[in-house]
Every structure is written in C-alpha cells, then in structure tokens.
Design brief:
about 350 residues; elongated; 2 domains; TIM Barrel; binds pyridoxal-5'-phosphate; 8-stranded parallel sheet; about 30% helix; alpha/beta
Length: about 350
C-alpha cells in the first residue's frame, strides 16, 4: 500500500476502439507508453488493441519493452545527442529536430551496421520541439545525405507547451509541408504524424484530414479522454487505473489549527476556514506518491491537503482505520503513481 490497480482488458479495449475509429479515415496509431514507464504488459495490451507502433520518450522505457520481447516497432519520442548510440540500439525510429543529433545517429547506425529510421518534427506554433517550417526543406536535404538513416516521416506536436489546439489550419499546413517535401525530394514518406491525444476533436470534425495518416496517443488510450478540454471520449474506459490507499487515522478534531503560526512542511503559511468540529481522516498517501489535486474519488471526498506521507480528509464522512479508499487519477497523477517506488503496481480484472 498504496497500490495502483490496472485493468489491462480496458486499456486493450480503449486501444481497439481508438484504432478502429482512426483507421476508418486512414490514420494509424502509435501507443505512447511514457506515463506507464514503458510497462511491457500495458504496451502489449495496446498492441493487442491494434496500435501499429509503441512510442516512448525515455530510452530506459524502450529498453524495458525490448527486453520483454515486445514485437512491434519502437519509437523514441525525444532524442538527445548523448543518447544517440543507445537510441540506435534500442529504437527502430526516433523523432528528431537537430542535425548534429542526426549525424551522430547515422554514425552509430553505421557502427552497428544497421539503418535507423527517423521522423523530422516541425514546429507549428506550440513552441516545444520542431524545425521551423521555413527551415524544413534545407533540413530534410541535409538529412538525406546521411547514409545510415532513412527518413520515414514528418510530424508535429501541439497542445503540450503552448496549449495550441490542433486545427484544420495547422493540420492543413502540415499536410502541405509534407507534400511539398515529397515533391521536391521525390520522397514517399510513410508516416505523416499529426499529433497526440489532443487531435481527437480535429479528427472528429475536420472535413478533410489532408494527408495526415498517423497519431501518437498516450492519454486517450490510458485514461479515455480527449486532452483539448479533458473531456471523456464516449465509449472508452476512464478508470482502467485506480489508486488504492489505506486509512490510518480517523478522529473528530477542530477544523482550525491552534498555537503559534509558523511555516508548514513545504515553506508556506496556509489559511484555514472555521467549520467547527469535524471528522478528520488520514490516508497513507502523500506528496511523495502523488499531488493531491490529481486524485478524484467517486465518494466525493473532501481532500483538505497533504504532506509528504499523509493525505488529510475532512468533513461529514466517517472512515475506519484499515479501510481502503479508491481514487481515479489524471495524467499527472498516473505518471506520479507509476513512477513512485512506494506504489505497488497490480494487474486486476474487473
Ligand atoms: C507524450 C507525447 C505524445 C503523447 O501525448 P498524449 O497527450 O499522451 O497522447 C505524443 N507525441 C509526443 C512527441 C510526446 O512527447
């Protein structure tokens, strides 16, 4: 305790429903496994659900899946110069934006006597990774001179840093950039990767998808939501992950602290409101495991706050010590719970 309970069948079904939906308009999927630290069983559930690739931003996660014998193409979402050798060894494909890094990848690919596939990312306004559109032709021209690399695609990523929404306009721009490149350099790029879980609304409403034929999905497969407004996608499972933690204290106490005021454990001086005497419950779960704002509960718990190892609930509800409480998680919460060594990962069936 605490533990995270994972229902693989629901993740597989989410992957299947999304794969079928996107395939209906010619879009293949990469299942993104970074929020679950490349857990091989979860990646396998995505593959069984129909995703064509597994993608992760961390080499360690890709390595974990490689070792587990996953049979699919592995994609590295973020490539560092210093990791080029391992990237070539572990990943089949990597996403790139820097020529120095590509040179290094090509060098190690030659050394390892293999060909490494690359996708070039283009900046379309979110201001995270990407080659500026005006620099793209020259960037591609130079990439094509690297003999141990094979350029297989172009992609972009939105709604991550600048909170820019995938739209008909920016997706049409990506389509145009791809077709210009294909014409100019006589290429036939197999992957035109339009984005991530935030592309759902665009996909559902766009008249034309242009030539976009791939998306990279993490959150919508794992938590079943569209990330533009964090709205549940109908028909998907939204609680494939549940965090379970134990009540360790249950008492009635005043709602206002007493004594001289100083800083709390994290250096701030909190404010409290007077609600009289109330039920106070402590759950063995803390900031070291997860941020309390990432927790949601069907029981409408009144979460007052948390310190490193204690989650504090207040209000009407009365719990007994030893009782287990269940929480749903948002994406940040999932990431934190999966990363914490204190949270047991347990596969369960419904
Ligand atoms: C994390 C990531 C994704 C997946 O994002 P979701 O919102 O979880 O679908 C896709 N592409 C890149 C480059 C990423 O880093």
């Amino acid at each position: 305790m605490p533990r995270i309970e994972i229902i693989l069948a629901q993740i597989q079904e989410n992957a299947r429903i999304l794969s079928e939906l996107y395939a209906s308009r010619g879009v293949s999927l990469m299942g993104v496994s970074k929020a679950v630290l490349g857990d091989p069983a979860i990646a396998q559930a995505m593959i069984q659900g129909g995703v064509s690739f597994i993608a992760d931003s961390r080499l360690e996660n890709l390595e974990r899946m490689r070792k587990a014998g996953l049979k699919t193409q592995l994609v590295l979402l973020r490539t560092a110069l210093s990791e080029a050798e391992a990237a070539v060894r572990v990943a089949d494909i990597s996403l790139n934006t820097e020529f120095e890094t590509l040179k290094r990848l090509s060098h190690y690919a030659e050394q390892q006597r293999r060909q490494h596939q690359v996708i070039v990312m283009v900046e379309l306004g979110d201001l995270r990774e990407g080659v500026m559109p005006r620099d793209l032709p020259q960037f591609v021209q130079r990439t094509l001179t690297l003999s141990n690399l094979k350029l297989v695609g172009v992609g972009c990523n939105l709604a991550c840093y600048g909170a820019i929404k995938p739209s008909e306009k920016n997706m049409a721009e990506l389509s145009q950039l791809v077709s210009d490149l294909e014409r100019q350099f006589c290429l036939d790029l197999s992957i035109h990767s339009g984005g991530n879980s935030a592309n759902y609304q665009w996909f559902k409403t766009a008249q034309s998808l242009g030539n976009i034929n791939n998306l990279r999905l993490g959150e919508s497969i794992l938590l079943g939501c569209d990330t533009v407004n964090r709205i549940a996608i109908p028909g998907l499972h939204h609680q494939a992950f549940q965090l379970v933690a134990e009540v360790i204290e249950s008492k009635t106490k005043p709602s206002l602290p007493w004594g001289e005021v100083c800083q709390d454990a994290f250096g701030s001086v909190p404010q409290f409101s007077e609600r009289g005497i109330e039920n106070r419950t402590i759950v063995a779960l803390g900031k070291q495991d997860i941020a309390s704002a990432s927790l949601q509960s069907k029981q409408k718990l009144n979460i007052l706050g948390a310190s490193s190892d204690h989650l504090i609930l207040g209000g009407e509800q009365l719990f007994t010590i030893g009782q287990e409480l269940q929480f749903s998680l948002d994406y940040g919460g999932l990431l934190a719970a999966m990363t914490s060594p204190f949270v047991e990962k347990r596969f369960v069936s419904v």
